[in-house]
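Discussion board: Methods & Data

I've been asked by a reviewer to show the raw model output for two of the constructs in my manuscript, not just the figures. I'm not sure how much to include, so I'm pasting the format here to get opinions. Each protein appears as its amino acid sequence followed by a line of discrete structure tokens. Is this the kind of thing reviewers expect to see in a supplement, or should I convert it first? Here is construct A:
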Amino acid sequence: MQLSKKINFTFLFLFSLGLSLGASAEPTFHKVEAREGDGVYSLLRRYNLDAFRCNFSKFYALNELRKSATLVKGRSYYLPIFVYRYDGKSIRTTIGISDWDQAVRIQKYNNDLVETEIRKQSYAKSRVLWVPYHEMNCLDEVKKNLSKPEPKKDSVLAAKVVPKKKQPIITQTKPITGKNLSTQAAGKRSYPIFGPKYAYTPLASEKMKGKVVYIVAGHGGPDPGAVGKRDGNKLCEDEYAYDVALRLCRNLIAHGATAYMITRDPDDGIREGLYLKCDEDEVVWGNFPIERSQKTRLFQRSNAINELYKKNKWRGVTQQIVVVIHVDSRAQKQQIDLFFYHHPTDAKGKALAKKLQATMSDKYKVYRASKNYFGTVTGRDLHMLREVEAPAIYIELGNIKHSRDQQRIVIERNRQLLADWLLEGLMKW
């Protein structure tokens, strides 16, 4: 009788803690130091947590931060990742769940982080299991993600230097002076934002006439984005994304499109050479300083686009798209091909992303020795895809920390090829 009472008391005590008899003790949260250039989004993206809104809410709550807060390099932050002591039997017995599919997803999550070198050892070897917060607390969001089709592996952008074309495709944008910073120019087709050498933008064709493109180079101002290093030189994501975006913008204007550079630099223009100087003088459309708060920065961009979109729609423009350009940051050894995101509910954005992917695949067959391309098209619930009213695509140019991917952006000719090939894909829109 006394033994029975002790067993019942133990059960009640465990139940009061929210644990099952088969599960490990109360888990802790994983803690990491912020790197140079880290924002909340880039930090959660590194740990494959950025696809779920609840992870962001939990991150702010765990670290007692306002949503407008910026991260400090070297300071430690809790991530929405539960840390369990693996029991050596199974994931389900370790955390006290019965859902087989859920356990498989958690296993894949841990394995993926080992592959990208975020984790040094597997959970089986280290006896430490990571469980993303969304798997335990945001199952509605998880189910929505599960309903999305798997990205198809296809074959697309050479990192090597290739011979120059006889007549390279050109591109457009407008001055950064004044409050009305349209990319269109009157009369002489001169656009100072491209810099003195490239300001004059002759009309090569009218294939894109009647189409409006809003181009957003990622990060900028106080946020350099991902940061890489090459031969002792610092590579800032915002500078290389901006240079490719400018070249694409000039290409579009040269072929009759109306193109708007939403993030803008007053003096950089299209730049030559391998290493682009990092600075913080970029502004957003309307000549407004780029805010430090990540959320505010993103809404500055999406609000500017939506205002322009409505004006152009009122004028009768029926074809408008948003193109967002970034450079990804992953483990140093992980090489990736240029890839695309679209919002899961944006059928037009998805179709356009697939056309761009197909164009890149064709180019890789010509310029890459192996002929293989593994750039994907994936649905993601990202701010710049969700909050804009026009169809949108989000482009990641490569891994800024991988030496071969770096060639894709540091070699000037490759930056122009990126812009040329993206233009070719957009011409199919």
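Construct B, same format:
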Amino acid sequence: MKILVLPRASNPYQRLLYTNTAFTKAEVSYVQPPTRYLAPLAWPYTVARLLAARLVGTRLVHIHWLYFLELPLRGRFFRRVSFLQTVALLHIIHLLGMRLVWTAHNVVGHEGRDGYGIRITRTLSAMADRIIVHSPQTTRQLSEAGADTSRTVVIPHGNYDGVYPTRLGRVAARKHFGVAPNARVILFFGLIRPYKGVEKLLEAFKQLKSGDHLLIAGECQPPDLARSLTAAATEYRNITFIHQSVPEEEVADYFAAADIVCMPFQTITTSGSAILAATFGKPLVAPRLGAIKEIPAGAGIFYQPGSDSHTLQHALEQALAGNLKSMGHTARHYADTLSWDDIAAKTYALYQEILTPSSIAS
């Protein structure tokens, strides 16, 4: 079985899926998105890769994210060009006689939350032979967006066991980040974008007790938001902002230093960062959005989406005053249920199903 996956992502999800023993007999190749300044070449490059893959017998394309066709230029004209390129690519896949699977990691791309982004979601859902969703909540979100959900299949997002080795214990990790040994540490971890609600977290944190510490780590893409976080970290000694893409070998250090992990998202489909926190056995504070609704209530404190910073402040206080050990154990137990062996086996079986002659004829 030959599979073309696009685009190749920097996060471990694809590596954990396709290196599993379930894919021993599969040949997986990737379309690597061009760098930012070569983004206009993404479309012809991807078409060329599709043609080359088909010539060597590839019959299945698996799309994970659509951001690789986003032009790095603003304006309605360029958004329309991005839309037309993406639709044309989907039609080329069908014209080549290739089967199409889409994993809806996001119902709508984070940079595509406009009319064109929604139309792409609807077009892709109509043309995909199967849509993999990580939870039933995603199927509901797709339906609310007007997408065709008749071919959705629920296959969970796996945990991060063994991906990020532990280097430092709690005391050493806190010393490394300049955090007081007895402080109660709230961690916000991952790529920082406006929809993740970090500004609301800043507001809520400033109302907490002086013995608490906020550790924010991740690359911040909007320059104005990065300046705001830097200013807050300069003004408040109990706020640490580490503005960088965190190397894999350092990821575990941040979770070792933390008591709880806060993810005050405004919108979300699937949260890999929530599963990462659960893998490290850390209590969560987050709104009941998307796949976060699937996390057991005992794994942290969960509040209604759209709440203000006072609600978030209250949730943080509840979590910090609660039984952190018990919540952490519940979170870790949830992560244990997300086995890659099971997930990879289900994904491979799905590929086999849609490549069978009876399925192709349908």
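Answer (T.O., handling editor elsewhere):
This is acceptable in a supplement if you add a one-line summary per construct. For B, something like: The first helix runs from residue 13 to 18.
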